[in-house]
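REQUEST FORM: STRUCTURE PREDICTION
Request ID: SP-0412
Submitted by: Lab K.M.
Chain count: 1
Length (residues): 406
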Amino acid sequence: MELDVDFVRAQFPAFAEPSLQGQAFFENAGGSYTCAPVIDRLTRFYHQRKVQPYGPYLASRLAGEEMDEARARLAALMGVQADELSFGPSTTQNTYVLAQAFRQWMQPGEAIVVTNQDHEANTGPWRRLAEDGIEIREWQVDPATGHLDPADLGNLLDENVRLVCFPHCSNVVGEINPVVEITAMAHAAGAFVCVDGVSYAPHGIADVGMLGPDIYLFSSYKTYGPHQGVMVIRRPLGEQLPNQGHYFNAEVLYKRFTPAGPDHAQVAACAGMVDYFDLLADHHGLTGTATERGAGVHDLMRGHEVKLLQPVLDFLSARNDLRLLGPARAEGRAPTVAVDLGRPAMPVAEALAAQGIMAGAGDFYAVRALQAMGVDPQQGVLRLSFVHYTSPDEIAQLLKALERVL
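STATUS: Completed
RESULT:
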């Protein structure tokens, strides 16, 4: 079965927006377009429910019910319990809250493994725990390829390691890391696992219950929703870590790591993300549980992306005036394609904009990864990122534009 891209694009108002006509969006890794069900829910909340939720009056009761619906349905999609999922203002802030909990829970001399492949959000907060005597061990990428070798992780694991942090895929390398294998290795050594799913979730929200990590984080504004951070903490870990919320909320798992009040309207609107996945499942005849339908949608998205991605990788790999970061085969990576031009990348992104291509340039908060691969973060990389709503015509437009400006 192939993804019906025309049906997909009909669910996104941006594709009918006059001001965006003729422009192809290739900076999706920085934030996706928002689907209509999310926009509709957000508009309804601000029109009808913008009161303090969970009160005795109708508007308040409905506001709380919509917030609870978002949590419950997203959790079902991800194969976890509803109270294991919480919302925060961003993935970075969620990670800082978690790091504070681990700071209080761990003892000096115990260790955390981080990588130099990550976005700074899943490495910087953990590295700061060294100030309290926590040992930080760096799982390093291959400087030629950006690859994280699980065998190298094995050399870092021992009885002192309490947490292993790594990305589902890097936002500049793009290679999809084997989460199940890595998680099993860490668990066998007695460590918990924190996976940054921000760069993977736009390509299919993960079945966390199947993958097995103890923490999984992603950003809803990169998965067709509002600007929120979504965080799963499985119960066996969440109940061990010190409460970071108000003391009287300590017994409610999803409130333990939400020290500030969430954005009620945006939390409620996150249910629209699941509405959208359900629309895709129904249109393509997918059945089963929420998790099974989500897995089917994931496979449809990935199949379409892989088909569109390979010609882009082939085009870039054939050139000798640039360096493609990450794998050259589409099956093993996300369609987040970073290119080292050996010169400042921003002028090229500006030239692409004149050709109707919306792309990004810079370090993308992955300074450590770029430095590890010998890329000057000051010059940055050109990043071309797309998702399942990208069309074959837009890929053709991109390749023609690259021919002109490179």
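NOTES: The first strand starts at residue 24 and ends at 25.
Reviewed by: T.R.
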